[in-house]
Specification:
This protein is α/β, with parallel strands linked by helices. The protein has 18 helices and 14 strands. A five-stranded parallel sheet has the order 2-1-3-4-5, with helices on both faces.
Amino acid sequence: MVFLEEPHVTGAILIVEDEAPIRESLAEVLRADGHQVTCATDGVAAMAALDTQEFDLVLSDVRMPGADGLAVLKHAREVTPQAPVLMMTAYATLDTAVEALRRGAHDYLAKPLVFEDVQHKIRFLLRNRLMAWENTLLRAEVQRQWNPETLVSESPAMQAVVATVRGLAAGAGPVLITGERGAGKESIARAVHYFSRRRNSVFLSLHCAGVPEHELDGQLFGQRRGAIPGAGDSREGWLQRARGGTVFLNGLAVLPPRLQDKLLRVVEANEVIPVGGQSAVGIDVRIIAASNHDLQRAVEAGRFRADLYARVKSDTIEVPPLRERREDIPALAAHFVRLYSHEFRRHVQGIDATALQHLLRLPWPGNVRQLANVIEHAVLVGGGEWIMLRDLPVAAHVGEATCMLAPAASTLDDALRACEKAHIEATLAAAAHDKRAAAQRLGISLSSLYRKLASLGIALRGPTPSE
């Protein structure tokens, strides 16, 4: 067994300093340490950067013209509360230090700065942040008891799926789950994990689509120190971190050929070779993979390894689209009503019969995920104990901007984009166009909301959070 070294964690850092020599020197030192550095010359520019970018750490001066460091600290705690904030000042008084720490700063540095101390503190904070995130994730996954209620099986099609899930759960080999986007493949993967002997270990879900190959390689298989310039020291991949649990790979068809080779080794030999490594690391993990593409055609086209496909296809679960199991819609809708009523602290009892009949007639191109979005919208905007037809984004009076009223010729991506846009617009309206409140309701950061507003073409209305 090979043990990896303590990781040297790097991240995206915002430096807020009005003195150019200090700002530029700090940026140079931190970039040499592998960090991605953004600089702001004053507090106003820093708050604008926090609204539009994601940062892992903020390093801010206290005394600056305009908005001072304490204002930056306050804004950072509101917009990116997960990012630690380091304060620095030449005016090192106890009162200033106590005030900064009281308002949420993680540490306090006195000028003139000793760069080695700055590097040490940043490494310490980023490593602790990463470890806290990992521990929270792993603990939440270990303690999370998958709720069989989410595996609705009123229809004969889903009853057959459940029977297959229970049968395959007892095995140890890889499982392939197929079905359209949004059909519930991850829920089925969790069901396999729940009914297996691994249920008390972690379940980790990784979406392969859209992740750069080098990043996916390290994230999945781990990496050795110096394997990639500027990438820091050794780190474990998710296949190692699972330790006796299950790793769900969503989007198997888009896995690059080189990573298909490495995954085949995992399936055949239960071992991984980290990026830049020479020796194999033994693992104990079950692979559950999912794809909404025809892997057989991908094999025939030369885009997917035939031997890997042969290994994963032996135990296959096909999840039917929602339009082919309409008997499940009432129970699924009731489940989502309970889920979002609890999440948003609303007292919604259920769905009116007319509204339910409307749901039963829809084509559902986005499947269960789309139904969940519709019910979430209705719980947010509805004002009564029952969801009525007028509360649904599918009602005729809502207009053609919603996902359900997209033209019939729309692609699935277009339909889902329209649904996301309609949901965000409805959430903004429900929050009186308070962007921070809307971001909290959506469960995303304020900066992520601004990026979605820009990408979806949603016009800004109401005051910005800095006003």
